[in-house]
Amino acid sequence: MYDWSQYRTLVGQRQLVCLARAVLRKNRILIIDEATANVDPRTDELIQKTIRDKFRECTVLTIAHRLNTIVDSDRILVLDAGKIHAYDEPYTLLQDPTNFFIKWCSRRANRRQQLF
């Protein structure tokens, strides 16, 4: 049987190399797809900090499934089945209990509580 943990490590390392290349190139636009999906929590924190620090003056488009990855973004666009369900600043989205973003956050929180 294949050891998938090794693959996960390789993907995580590849993500770190790509991020380092973007930093060195001083890219003005960064598009990342769940950049921290294949790394441990400590590396996740390092990647998030690096993105916030090194790309502060850049356009960063983040495709994410984790709230902590996007909660400090300037704007959040929530898509489901190809339809736009919410678009605004995180604070504004969190103020409206009827919007899709709040429902998504609640589902994530409930799922997390069930795991622990």
From TrEMBL:
Listed Gene3D superfamilies: P-loop containing nucleotide triphosphate hydrolases
Location of the ABC transporter domain: 12-37
Presence of keyword ATP-binding: yes
GO terms assigned for molecular function: ATP binding; ATP hydrolysis activity; ATPase-coupled transmembrane transporter activity
Cellular-component GO terms for this entry: plasma membrane
PANTHER family, per database record: ATP-BINDING CASSETTE SUB-FAMILY C, ATP-BINDING CASSETTE SUB-FAMILY C MEMBER 4
Pfam family, one: ABC_tran
Protein name as it appears in the record: ABC transporter domain-containing protein
Keywords, ordered alphabetically: ATP-binding, Nucleotide-binding
